Amino acid sequence: MQVIIDEVVSRVRAIDGRSALGPETTRALVEMVLAALREEMAHDERIRTERAVNNGYFDTAGRQGQGR
Question: Is the distance from CB of 64 to CB of 58 less than 8 angstroms?
């Protein structure tokens, strides 16, 4: 089987690499990253709180118990 290509048409769109993301897309990405970072930090804080035990309990206000 023989194929003859008579003409090839291609469209190329050049963009400026610095402006590939619009301001709204950039803001959305930043919000997603910040939300993920906040969740990770909250998780780390929960882990730290669970490990900080004094006389068998921990005051969730962040102050260690006085051993009642």
Answer: yes
